[in-house]
Amino acid sequence: MNADGNNQLDNEECYTDVYHTSTTRALPDLPLREEEEGEAAAAGGLYIWRKDKPKLVILALAVGLVLMFLLWLILIILVFTYYSAISSEIRDVMGSNSETIQEISDIHQKSQENRIVEIQELNSVVNQILQAQENLRVEIQEQRNTVSQILQAQENLREEIQKQSNTGRGDVSCPSSWKCIGKSGYFFSTATVTWDEANTDCSSRQAQLLVLANKGEMDALVPHMDGKPYWIGLKKIVNNWTWHNGLIPSFTSWNPNEPNNAGGRENCVEMKSGLWNDIDCTIKLAYICKSIWFY
Q1: What is the rounded distance in angstroms from the CA atom of residue 26 to the CA atom of residue 31?
Q2: Are the C-beta atoms of 258 and 276 separated by less than 8 Å?
Q3: Pick from 258, 261, 293, 47: which is nearest to 158 by CA?
Q4: How many other C-beta atoms can be found within 10 angstroms of the C-beta atom of residue 291?
Q5: pTM of the model
Q6: pLDDT tens, 250-285?
Q7: What is the pLDDT of residue 41?
Q8: SS3 (DSSP) at 289
């Protein structure tokens, strides 16, 4: 190529470089591709996150504390509400119980008052009955004393009649098998019979089952008893010990702890060595009959 041609090429290349240079400088920035934009955004966000990290942590903690406070507040409100409801129920129950207790107390007090009145009325009735019993007992005792006096008078009269009869006949000795002790005659049986049989046999002998006038008479008989037990004329009548002729004993001579009514059937009396013992009337014993002999 000639020199003109080379110059022309050089001029074209220069022109091209100038053109490209001017064109490049004059054109605006072209938009980046999407991937490049994403990477740029990510890089920018990471930079912002790293820059604002302490603020976010503090904000999260604050939010957490607020939430916890709200939860505690809700819990406290629920507990308070529940406690208030329970307290109200308890007050209602206590009020109801108080009313019930008061009602029970009133009923109990009324019942006690009624019971006291009933007891007082019963006591009054019992006192009246006891007074009536006491009056009856006194009356019976007076009648018994009167009967005893009459019987004693009869006994004295009988003795006087017997005395007058014997005076006309002179001295009278005891029949055979009888023992004269003092002014009386006594029959000591050898056979053993029941109390009723002994009483009947003495009557058939025109005598009576032994009735002791006093302790001296009993002491006079003891030596003749030879330590054996004998029926005497004492018997229990309506829970009172009475001689079979109705006289009340002027003295007693019970064994220790007697009478004891063992078995609930001991209504008659035996005498042994001057001591008395209540015993079943159906038991068979020897007996003593008493009659009056003057000589």
Answers
A1: 16
A2: yes
A3: 293
A4: 18
A5: 0.48
A6: 899 999 999 999 988 999 999 999 999 999 999 999
A7: 53
A8: strand
- pLDDT band, very low/low/confident/very high, at 92 (cuts 50, 70, 90): confident
Angle at 267 between CA 262 and CA 269, to 5 degrees: 95
Structure tokens at 98: 């108080």
Token readout for 243 is 């001689």
Distance CA 185, CA 167 (A): 16
Most distant CA atoms of the chain, gap in Å:
232
Residues 205, 289: contact at Cβ < 8 Å?
A: yes
Residue 67: strand, helix, or coil: helix
The two tokens of residue 110 are 């009324």
Query: What is the number of other CB atoms lying within 10 angstroms of the CB of residue 192?
Result: 16
Return the closest-CA partner of residue 198 out of 285, 267, 279, 292: 285
Number of H helices, E strands in the chain: 4, 8
